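pls design
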């Protein structure tokens, strides 16, 4: 019985660590949200809600600084990015 219980526990641990590696984070990335001028943004990435963070996070890389900051999803910069990505209607 001990060996069966040990193997079951080992399998559960392996499944948990595999699921963790798929996402790679255990908490939200964004502690603070910033307003950024759209022309200062070099690249952006969206992190969708996960078991560890229940909000959408928008992380942008700035053109003239080696820095990443978080945008508010309702900010003017994010609206400008989305409008540019979707193109004219």
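designed seq:
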């Amino acid at each position: 019985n001990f060996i069966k219980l040990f193997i079951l526990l080992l399998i559960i641990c392996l499944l948990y660590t595999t699921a963790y590696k798929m996402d790679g984070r255990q908490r939200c990335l964004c502690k603070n949200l910033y307003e950024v001028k759209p022309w200062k943004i070099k690249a952006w990435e969206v992190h969708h809600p996960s078991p560890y963070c229940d909000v959408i996070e928008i992380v942008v890389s700035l053109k003239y600084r080696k820095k990443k900051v978080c945008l508010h999803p309702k900010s003017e910069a994010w609206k400008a990015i989305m409008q540019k990505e979707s193109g004219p209607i």
